[in-house]
Each structure stands twice: as structure tokens, then as C-alpha cells.
Task: inverse folding
């Protein structure tokens, strides 16, 4: 055997050994037992919805600072602020107008200082909806100043618009957060007989317009469509047939979550199931009314409400969104009276006060008992999961 042939055999043997080693290494690296496939990442978006943010005359008076005649509402939300700031997006129903100058008035024409909006921003709110029966309380200048004030504070806002061009540009409201693309829509049943003055626009509950808006929302291919409705009958503890009919209509046209406001009391939370146009079944969570977030109302069951928290889940790279953990967070309105007669309005997260009776300094036992009574009745009536905070 010549030397050249021996060298070829040695080289071939070396190549076979190297090839075998590579095969073994490949099997080792690809083995699902040694290196199991990692699960796809799940994106999470936590939403908190708060109910009616009111501005009655005693609230305005309580927020006024005697020294310089300015207003400060920040104390009102100091106890609920840590809860709101746990959300990726906190959404509230602003049931008043911000005219930008006095006179500031409560019921029946709600005109509050801009300082209220600044306090809501400080508390952790990200989005405010403004289509409600008090949207026109300061007429066209109130509509436009409310919008301008909120946008200047970096709120996202929807439901009312400066003009048609403004609505065309910003409606449906598209929200981008944590890899999620949401569409948010908002409508009201009434403006209390006060006409909407041109060129401003207040979104009314008009099924023809809503159907078109939801079609536009679907065309933009969001991961999730949320509709906030100002509807129902004040002080009624149960939703009515009109609310249920509208809920089914919204679901058939693409709504994935429906949040209700206006009755000033908490109404049931239900999963509504409808047959879609293609014959499939769709079930959507409907919170018929969140009740009051803060107000001076004294009618039965109006001294509180709930925040509703819901986690949206999405596997990275997939357009499908599912609802994860969700539930209610009861809140209660407390009016503290200082020895000098000065009042301060607070929105209290009820469960935290129940766990720690001295959470709110100088809160009398009578007020604590009123909170306990409210939340006990609410829990019994709703029979819905309450989240720990």
C-alpha cells in the first residue's frame, strides 16, 4: 500500500469520526429531555376601571384652599392611589365639566376646577371618558376646555370631541401598552336636554353610529375592544332590559368587554352570551354599573362603588387575547370633618380599612361601621369575586 493511499484512508477515518461527533452533539443539543422547549412569553395588561367621578358643591368647597383661593383635590385620592398605580392603565368616568374658570358649581350643572383633573392624574389615572349626561353642563366652551385640559395633562380621553375633524382623528381611541393594541369607545344616553353646540360632539347612544364605529374599530385590528356605556336608570340596583339589549348589540358588533356607568349604584356583573352573525357563540363580561367613585350623593347605596380590575393575557406573537384574573375592588366615600369644620372627601379602598382600622387618621367608629355595612351589603348582593389589595 503506497503512502498516498494510507494518507487518504487516515483522512477518511478522521472525517467519519468528526461526522459522528457532530451527530452526537446535534442529538445532545436537540434532545427535548435535556433542553426542553421554553414556553412562549405571555404579555399581561392590567386594567382598572373606576366609576362616576362627581363634583358636587360641597366637594368644590372642601377642596378650596383658604390661603390662596386655589384648589387641591389630591388628598381625596391618597388612600386609593396605591391601588390605581398597580394598574398598567386606570380608566375613570369623568362626570363633570372643566370650564377653566369660575363659577364652579355642582348639581345640576357640574363645573369643577381644573385642579380636580390634576389630582386624578397624580392618583394614577391614565384615561378618562367624558360622554355622559353632564357633558354639556358648561356648553361648548366646557366641552373644548375639558378636552384641552385633559390632553395637556397627558390623559388619553374619549367620548367628547372639539369638532368632527377631532373625532375623525382620535376615534375610536386606540391605546398601545405592553404589546397590546386596544380600541376604546364611549357613549351616553343623554345630555340632560342641553343641546350639543356645534362644532363640538358628544357621542350619543345611536345604534347606527355605534355599529359603524365598531366596524371601524374592527378594521384597525386591535387585540381587544372595550366599550364604556353611560346608561341605565339612576339608583336602580339591577340593570334593565334596555341595558341588556344594548349589551348584546355591542357584543354582536365586536365588543370584548363592556363597562357601565351612570346609575350611581353598583349593578350586577355578568357574562352575557350571544350568537354571532357566523353562528358561533361569544361570551363577554359586562359590568352594568360601577357606582360612584367619589361624590356627595346621600341616596341609599350611592356612598360607594367598585373599581373593576381585569388582566388581559396574550401569548407573544399571537393576536389572541384572553381574560385572566379579574374581580371587583369595593370603594367607599368618606367625608372627614376636622375640629374647625373643614371637610375633606376621600375615596377609600374598603378592604384596606377593614384590615387596618387606623389606616385613616381620626376616622370615627361611626364612619368605619358605615363602611363595613356598605361593603357587607355590596358583597352579598353582587356575589362576585373580590380581589385582594
Result:
Amino acid at each position: 500500500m503506497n503512502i498516498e493511499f494510507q494518507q487518504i484512508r487516515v483522512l477518511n477515518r478522521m472525517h467519519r469520526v468528526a461526522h459522528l461527533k457532530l451527530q452526537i452533539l446535534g442529538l445532545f443539543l436537540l434532545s427535548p429531555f435535556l433542553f426542553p422547549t421554553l414556553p412562549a412569553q405571555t404579555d399581561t395588561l392590567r386594567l382598572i376601571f373606576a366609576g362616576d367621578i362627581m363634583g358636587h358643591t360641597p366637594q368644590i368647597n372642601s377642596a378650596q384652599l383658604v390661603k390662596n383661593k386655589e384648589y387641591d383635590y389630591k388628598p381625596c385620592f391618597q388612600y386609593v392611589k396605591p391601588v390605581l398605580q398597580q394598574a398598567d392603565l386606570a380608566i375613570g368616568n369623568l362626570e363633570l365639566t372643566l370650564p377653566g374658570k369660575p363659577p364652579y358649581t355642582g348639581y345640576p350643572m357640574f363645573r369643577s376646577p381644573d385642579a380636580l383633573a390634576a389630582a386624578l392624574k397624580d392618583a394614577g389615572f391614565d384615561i378618562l371618558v367624558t360622554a355622559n349626561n353632564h357633558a354639556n353642563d358648561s356648553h361648548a366652551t366646557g366641552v373644548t376646555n375639558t378636552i384641552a385640559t385633559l390632553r395637556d395633562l397627558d390623559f388619553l380621553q374619549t367620548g367628547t370631541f372639539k369638532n368632527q375633524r377631532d373625532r375623525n382623528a382620535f376615534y375610536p381611541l386606540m391605546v398601545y401598552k405592553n404589546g397590546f393594541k386596544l380600541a376604546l369607545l364611549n357613549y351616553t344616553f343623554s345630555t340632560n336636554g342641553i343641546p350639543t353646540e356645534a362644532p363640538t360632539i358628544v357621542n350619543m347612544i345611536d345604534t347606527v353610529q355605534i355599529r359603524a364605529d365598531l366596524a371601524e374599530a374592527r378594521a384597525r385590528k386591535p387585540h381587544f375592544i372595550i366599550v364604556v356605556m353611560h346608561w341605565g336608570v339612576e339608583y336602580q340596583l339591577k340593570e334593565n332590559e334596555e341595558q341588556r339589549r344594548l349589551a348584546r348589540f355591542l357584543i354582536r358588533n365586536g365588543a370584548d368587554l363592556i363597562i357601565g356607568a351612570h346609575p350611581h349604584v353598583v349593578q350586577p356583573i355578568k357574562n352575557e352570551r350571544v350568537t354571532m352573525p357566523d353562528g358561533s357563540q361569544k361570551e363577554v363580561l359586562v359590568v352594568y354599573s360601577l357606582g360612584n367613585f367619589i361624590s356627595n350623593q346621600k341616596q341609599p347605596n350611592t356612598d360607594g362603588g367598585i373599581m373593576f380590575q381585569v388582566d388581559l393575557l396574550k401569548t407573544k406573537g399571537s393576536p389572541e387575547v384572553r381574560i385572566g384574573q379579574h374581580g371587583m375592588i369595593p370603594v367607599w366615600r368618606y367625608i372627614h370633618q376636622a375640629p374647625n369644620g373643614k371637610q375633606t372627601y376621600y375615596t377609600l379602598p374598603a378592604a384596606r380599612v377593614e384590615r387596618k382600622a387606623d389606616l385613616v387618621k381620626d376616622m370615627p367608629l361611626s364612619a368605619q361601621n358605615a363602611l363595613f355595612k356598605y361593603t357587607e351589603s355590596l358583597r352579598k348582593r353582587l356575589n362576585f369575586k373580590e380581589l385582594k389589595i
